[in-house]
Design a protein that fits this description.
This protein is of the alpha/beta class. It has 3 domains: about 180 residues, NAD(P)-binding Rossmann-like Domain (Rossmann fold, 3-Layer(aba) Sandwich), CATH 3.40.50.720; about 70 residues, N-(1-d-carboxylethyl)-l-norvaline Dehydrogenase, domain 2, CATH 1.10.1040; about 40 residues. Helix content is about 45%, strand content about 10%. It contains 14 helices and 8 strands. Helix 7 links the parallel strand 7 and strand 8. Helix 1 crosses helix 2 and helix 11 packs across helix 12. The relative contact order is 0.09.
Length: about 325
């Protein structure tokens, strides 16, 4: 691999995640091939990237005079072989369908030389299962970007039992160079690291509502105005060490028997879905949402992330 030039990247799938991932690499100077079976999806991608980068430039997070150059570094194609040709690093971002992902990896494994790294952006699926039909399993790795990928720094780099350590090291180094914060997930387990933590919190939050301890809005307030404020700076493991593991053990001895531990989704959640109460998309979920309220929620998230990323004291 030629280390004197920026590595060539191929992104397979041009949905919201694929387009965002392509943007991350193009903005950092990489030539990117963006592939999708649907021409209409590819036609939308340059405009979305231009809009995102312009938004970042307006908020001081990207150079305004570099927007068009970055957009120009992304070429689109409906042909998988063409996208993979000459790529040093390939990231699959297709639908969360195991058979589809396995087929994509089997094809990529045949198209790409053994030194090309093949990564999947799955959020929960087994990396080993996705790469099961690849012959060169040592170069298959998980790279779980979080949405929106051009704003969230975290990328979970997930190992399989077959992956080469050098592939992990190279992947993490490449991600750092494009401004991401990769973490090393040492086992290929469902949900990896961050989704396991996130959904453990969601399970308890839904249980609290289900059992009438507090309503949904109050649950969210308890996080926003309490532990959520300090989590970015004082995360769980450091917090446990700060308060003392003896106190942590004493608290767990008392409280853990009372926390939700079901291995199945909440009956309340299932009831909501069966009733067609799906949240923003239907106007009703755990709470009622007008279209304006849903849009305002999405806007608050993006504005918050931009504020955090633009704060040099955060070190992100």
């Amino acid at each position: 691999m030629d280390t004197e030039r920026a590595e060539r990247v191929a992104v397979i799938g041009s949905g919201m995640m694929g387009t965002g991932v392509a943007q991350v690499f193009a903005a950092a100077g990489h030539e990117v091939a963006l592939q999708d079976l649907y021409p209409e999806a590819l036609e939308r991608a340059p405009g979305a990237i231009r809009s995102n980068l312009t938004f970042l430039a307006e908020n001081g997070l990207f150079a305004a005079d570099g927007v068009e150059a970055a957009v120009g570094r992304v070429r689109t194609t409906t042909d998988l072989r063409e996208a993979a040709d000459g790529a040093d690093f390939v990231i699959e971002c297709v639908f969360e369908d195991l058979a589809l992902k396995q087929d994509v990896f089997a094809q990529l494994d045949g198209f790409c030389p053994p030194e090309t790294i093949l990564a999947t952006n799955t959020s929960v699926m087994s990396i080993a299962e996705i790469g099961a039909r690849a012959r060169h399993k040592e170069r298959v790795v998980g790279t779980h970007f979080w949405n929106p990928p051009y704003l969230i720094p975290l990328v979970e780099v997930v190992r399989t039992e077959d992956v080469d350590d050098a592939v992990i090291e190279h992947t993490m180094d490449l991600l750092r160079k494009v401004g991401k914060h990769p973490i090393d997930c040492k086992k290929d387990v469902p949900g990896f690291v961050a989704n396991r933590l996130q959904h453990a919190l969601w399970r308890e939050a839904i249980s609290i509502v289900e059992h009438g301890i507090a309503d949904a809005a109050t649950v969210d307030e308890s996080i926003r105005f309490g532990p959520g404020l300090r989590l970015p700076i004082l995360a769980p493991m450091e917090n446990a060490d700060m308060v003392g593991l003896d106190l942590t053990l004493a608290i767990h001895d008392y409280i853990l028997p009372h926390l939700e531990s079901s291995g199945a989704p909440s009956p309340l959640l299932r009831e909501k879905v069966e009733a067609g109460e799906l949240g923003f998309k239907t106007g009703s979920g755990f709470q009622k949402w007008s279209e304006d309220e849903a849009d305002a929620s999405r806007r608050r998230l993006v504005e918050y992330l931009v504020h955090v990323l633009g704060d040099p004291a955060r070190g992100l």
